[in-house]
Structure formats: C-alpha cells, structure tokens
Amino acid sequence: MGDSPLWSRRGFLGLSVGVAGAAGLAACGGTSDSPAAVAPDVPKELLDAAAAAKGTSMGLLSQKLYSTAANDALDNSIKKFADATGTKIENSLVQADAGDVVAKIDAEVKGGVARDLAFMTDSRFIAQFHALGDLEDVTDVVTALTAKYGEPCAEAKNFCVFDGKWYAIPYHFIGIGSFLRKDWMQEKGITPKDTYSWEELRDVCLAISDPGKRRFGWGMTVNRSGDGNGLIEALINSYGGAIADNAGKKVTFDSPETVQAVTFLGDIYTNPKYKPMLPPGVASWTDTTNNENWLAGVLGYTRNSFSVYADSKTKKNPVYEKTHVFSDCIGPATDKPLLLGQSQGFVVFKGAKNPALAKLLAQYLVSAPALVGVSKEAPGLVMPAWEKVWDADPYFTSGDAAFPIVRKLSQQPLPLSTKNGLDFPQKASAGQQAVVAAYVLTDMMQQVVQGTAPAQAVTAAHAKMVQIFSQQGLPQ
C-alpha cells in the first residue's frame, strides 16, 4: 500500500550488534533524559528467543501519538530492539481519527499485505477487527506477561478478550481526564473539587468566562472529533443512557435518559445565556483544536486524553502549573464518575509474515525500559498497562502529581454501575465501536444545535445505530 496523508513510514535496519554492541550504544547516552539514554538493552530471554529471527524483517503499525517527541522515543525503542536482534523493523504511523482506519487495515489484511503487528486503542477498534476475523489469538503472550508483570489494566480485560481468549496485548494505558483553570476559579472565589456534576461544571465554566479577556470556560466541541464523541457518550452514560445494552448486542439509545442528556448538552450550545463561555468557532473544531486552545491559555475547561496535559508539561507551558486535574463528572444516574480510561493494545494480524518476532517486540515494548522514554515525552498519556511495570521505574510512581490518579484509574475494580442498571465497561461490541467511528453521536448533536428537537434527533440517531449494528453482524 502506498503512503497517503494518513500514513507515514520509518524504516529501521537492525545492525546485528548483539548484546555487547547494544550495551555500548546505551552507554553513550550517559545520564541524560533523552529517549536514547533511557532505552536500555533488550532482556536476554527475548534476545535468545529472537535468535532464530536474525536477518528477518517485519512491519509495525503505530497509532500516532499527539506528541511528536513521543513518537520519536517509540522509534528509538523499536530501533534498540531491531539493532539488538539483528532484524529490520519498519514502523508506520496511522491517524486513528480519520474515520476509515478499520476499513483500510481490513483491506490490507484481506489482501495479504498487512503489517505483522499494530497497536490500536482497545475500546475503539479491537472488537471491530475481531468481528472482521483479522486478529490472531495472543493469549500465550498475555499469559507470559501476566506471570512476569502481574495483572494488566482493568479495562483491557473487557475490550481485548473474546470468548475467553486475548486478541490484543495491553501495551500502555492512556490517561483520560478533565482539566480546569484553577487560577481563574480562585479569582472568582471558587474552590476546586475532585468531582463535579455536569450542571456544576457548566455553571463554573460560565462563572470563570470573560470574553473581553479571551477567557472562554467551555472548551469542548460537538463537531466530528474523538473528543466530541467522548464527551457526548460520557454525558449520556452518566444520565443513564447508552448506545447498547450491557451485552453490547441490542441498541438501546432512544431512551428518556438519553433525551435528557442531549437536551442538557444542546442547551449549552444554543442558549444565549451560555454564549459567553463558548470559544469562537467551537462548532467547527477538529480533534486537536481544544488542545491548541487550552495550550494557548484561552480555555477554562477541557476534557481530553492526557495529551494536552503532557504537552503543557514537556513544553514548559505556564498553563501546566495552573491546571486542576479531576477525573470526570457525575450525572443523575451516577454517584461517581464512569471514567475507565483506555489502553493501546498490540494485535497480530492474520497472515502476518513474522508473527514470532512481532510477539517478541510487543513483549519488549510493554516493559519499563522501553516505555519510560515514550512516557517522559507524553506524561499521563503513555503510562504502564501492567501492574509491576508501574513500580519498575521511579518515574512512573513519582514523575508527576497526576500519575497516582492515572494509576488508580487503570487498576480500579470494574464494572462501574449506574443507578438504572448499566455496567461500564459494557461487553466489547463491534456495533458500538462502529457507531462511534461513524460519528453518529456528533452528527446528532449538530442537528440539535441547528434546531432539531432533542427527542427527534435521538430517534434518528437510534435508527442509524440499528443499521450499523446490523452491518456489523448484530441484527436488531
């Protein structure tokens, strides 16, 4: 497959350096915090297992991280493994929010030209690839990693397992959080809290807004974007609504709880009362716009993966010191936030030319030595997916004040339940993931913003979801 705007390639040729050569390369970095200095030798057991693969090659597909430096740090760890094992590894980046990533990769698998290994966000993609028959069983790798590193992050056990078998190897945990400008709040005499209701958050955002000073409290869009999807679904869930039932098979979207949530959210974007807290152009924001505006210091609140927090820290943006981090908001159906976080999962595609080497690379990249350099360039966004990896490097335990929040999120007991019987995470569903990828939620909210009654918009979205579920082999 030729390169397109969605894909970029980096090729790494292993130099057959062996253990001694790799050790010399690591030593050149001294005690610097640069990625080259923190990626040490590949463990001997992996080197021994990879001996038969010397001189071979493989392809890796990496979900693009928001931080360019983190992508480069990952490249460095991959190169370290390739050099040490005498193999060639080509790493390609994919932008996961393009909307057609599953179709593209599925076509490659069916055409016999897919990469051997890839990592993708588990709650967004793994069920779809499994339903398409694109993935190999990797239970053997997860079993070996569990023996070495303890339990994987809690949510991965839901999104990577089908019929008792693992089809993705947890790679790194993705912190997701909510961020408020604590300095703006303090100016208004508002004390930051650990948990807010959505109504409380809306009112705080309005109170701290001042368009004359370029301060806009509500830094979220309902335009087509991953963050828009995340906001809408989280709010609906907290009100007691969901795309599907707990089994992930039956569409249950058109409910009074969903209509109530959509009505509340639509009011923020249509009621003149809240206009002062909406940033200019928010209706047409894309997936990086809230990051850019938060880092520019013009937003009072945003909800995001920790990419925006990481960027403010690594680039020494003054907004970092002014950020109040909290988990998420509660709604009428919840007593505590339903925030699960996400993890990236390694998958081995059917027809992989070098699956044995792919599995060994995955086992190296989940380890603390390979992960810490990436994490330092994306703090909070790239964190350990495995219990004992958290304690394997002091950076993960004490590198930032927000890390304990992320660790607690990754290891919390699941499921989290609503007052009306919904459990989160719900069973991984190709239908639900395809609905989110098709931007049915954001399109529904756009209709509401343009004047469609919430109940009517919800009913129309439900009909689209039924169609998508049926296309995914889940007839309604």
UniProtKB/TrEMBL annotation:
Q: Which Gene3D superfamilies match?
A: Periplasmic binding protein-like II (3.40.190.10)
- Keyword check for DNA damage, yes or no: no
Mind telling me which InterPro entries this protein's record contains?
Answer: Bact_solute-bd_prot1, SBP, TAT_signal
Give the keywords, sorted.
Signal, Transport
Checking Pfam families in the record gives: SBP_bac_1
Similarity-based family: Belongs to the bacterial solute-binding protein 1 family.
What is the protein's name according to its record?
Extracellular solute-binding protein
| Protein species of origin | Paractinoplanes aksuensis
